[in-house]
Amino acid sequence: MISPVTFWIILGVLLMVLEIFTPTFFVFWFGLGSLAAAIVAYFYENTIFELLTFIVVSGILVLSTRKLAKKITGEEVRSINVDEIIGKEAIVIEQIDNKLGKGVVKVSGDMWRAVSVDDDVVIQSGEKVIIEKVEGAHVVVRPVFKPKEFENLKENKSDNL
Question: For the NfeD-like C-terminal domain, which residue ranges apply (predicted)?
């Protein structure tokens, strides 16, 4: 059976190690809160005091040091204006098929649900698209044709007329 002190120390170390693999500076504070709970567990061995210490210390650290952490990591709070992505090129992450209601694109590091301007066009993963407009939480896209594909498309349309 693992002692409460050992549990809190292991949890604290795991949270601090997890911080290495996350892009934010957030989980680290819970690791410190866990180590504070380990100290309480060493002296009192009361689960309620341990949990309260973990929650209070983690909360205080998160609230009081977020600005410092942002300064250290150089991370700025990202704000996105949806108008900024209109006209930008995006890459299709999940095949866009309006009939199946599927589609995800990545633009400027953000993932968006996507639909095609043409319901009959299925756009494969890995292809590039242009963002035509934003409708709610979806972007409406059109495929970026390479010159040869564009010529083939024009020929196919003129053959159908």
Answer: 82-143
- Domain of 47 in residue numbering reads as 4-72
Which two tokens mark 22? 């996350």
For residue 107, what is the domain's CATH number?
2.40.50.140
Within 13 Å of residue 128, how many CA atoms lie on the same side as its CB? Answer: 6
CB atoms within 10 A of CB 25: 16
C-beta atoms surrounding 84 within 10 Å: 13
Q: What 3-state class would DSSP assign to 25? A: coil
Which one of 46, 72, 98 terminates a domain? 72
**How far, in Å, CA of 115 to CA of 98, rounded?**
6
Largest Cα span, the chain: 85
Structural contact between residues 143 and 123, judged by C-beta atoms closer than 8 angstroms: yes
Query: In the chain, how many domains are there?
Result: 2
